[in-house]
Design a protein that fits this description.
The protein is an alpha/beta fold. Helix content is 32%, strand content 17%. The protein folds into 2 domains: 115 residues, 3-Layer(aba) Sandwich (Rossmann fold); 195 residues, 3-Layer(aba) Sandwich (Rossmann fold), CATH 3.40.50.300.
Length: 350
């Protein structure tokens, strides 16, 4: 496998296991970091902790920081990705409580733990660490637009927080199971916590974002695949910029479009209707062809988590018939997912 781009904390591994902090979250989609770690790094997650007003749970045991420390936890991870990436004042006493219990703090928010004076002072006095993983590498170049060797797959979405990371992780795992030389390339805080390396694309200065995507997925053997975690949406009223930079810099040979069944409005921007899947495919192929004219869409990753198995199967089959391409829910797997993997690799169903 190729060498992943290092993060600033590469010289020392993140302290594990984790206690997941859910803050005062009431919208499950904003707790995607906690859910991602629960689902893809379960062996590193001992429990969860939250404010009294939180209405979201990962289903892990609720542990006070002192209980988590006694159980072996070494750090509390902020498992929230709220709009703007801010840390509310109401969280601070609970974060200090974790430091006092002997836990380091790991954050992936836009607001850095190290920029909060109360946390900085407490950590210094207690001999604890504040680790911000949303720190891009230094000296990122401006994108060159030059074609790189190797093969690349990028997950793109009709919206934020609907399964791009899960799809990329599942596809990378499926490729590996087939003996394909593959790397998962993380582009957000949760993916970085899972993979241990990556680039937090939305923390990169705009002029260098496409260059960061190029650096994330360097020249590789012609048979090697990089499966790149998508971010945002090309049609999002706030986050389209990072999506376009990632598309241009990744130069994907293949895209998989991700959508959540039943979602009709942009998350957090309900006055905007979601674009159709057909629109999303067309826009991604048009814009992606600027840096890779051979770009193609292999199929759709459909998040059917809110449906029962029968309804999910009907939704998947109906969309596949409508679009004339593979559709699957990577979490459910099955023959539909095998067909999607075949299409990504350019193989015939068999």
């Amino acid at each position: 496998m190729q060498t992943a781009i290092p993060m600033p904390h590469e010289t020392e591994a993140l302290p594990q296991p984790y206690l997941l902090f859910l803050g005062d979250t009431v919208e499950p989609s904003y707790a995607k970091t906690a859910f991602g770690l629960r689902d893809w790094a379960r062996d590193r997650c001992l429990g969860e902790f939250a404010c009294e007003t939180a209405r979201v749970s990962t289903g892990l045991p609720f542990l006070a920081p002192v209980q988590a420390r006694q159980a072996g936890a070494r750090a509390m991870v902020i498992g929230v990705a709220n709009p703007g990436g801010h840390i509310p004042a109401a969280w601070i006493p609970l974060l200090v409580q974790a430091l006092e219990a002997g836990l380091d703090l790991i954050g992936g928010m836009h607001m850095r733990l190290s920029d909060i004076e109360l946390l900085r002072n407490a950590a210094r006095a207690l001999g604890r660490r504040l680790i911000d993983v949303r720190e891009p590498p230094l000296n990122i170049p401006v994108a060159s637009g030059a074609k790189r060797t190797g093969k690349r797959l990028l997950t793109v979405g009709t919206d934020c927080a609907l399964g791009k990371k899960y799809a990329a992780l599942a596809l990378a795992h499926a490729f590996q199971q087939r003996g394909v030389d593959v790397d998962f390339r993380a582009t957000g805080q949760t993916g970085i916590l899972i993979a241990g390396a990556g680039v937090p694309m939305d923390a990169v200065v705009a002029d260098f974002a496409a260059g960061a995507a190029e650096t994330l997925s360097p020249d590789a053997d012609p048979s090697h695949w990089d499966v790149i975690e998508g971010q945002g949406s090309l049609s999002h009223p706030a986050y389209a910029g990072v999506s376009l930079a990632l598309l241009h810099g990744s130069q994907p040979d293949v895209i998989v479009v991700c959508h959540e069944q039943g979602r009709e409005r942009v998350l957090g921007y309900e006055h905007y209707a979601l674009p159709s899947i057909e629109e999303t495919i067309g826009l991604a192929l048009t814009l992606g062809a600027r840096t890779n004219p051979a770009i193609r869409c292999a199929g759709i990753s459909l998040n059917t988590g809110a449906l029962d198995p029968e309804a999910a199967r009907a939704a998947i089959d109906g969309l596949a018939d409508r679009l004339g391409m593979p559709v699957a829910d990577p979490v459910r797997g099955g023959d539909a997912f095998k067909t999607l993997v075949n299409a990504c690799l350019g193989e015939q169903a068999g």
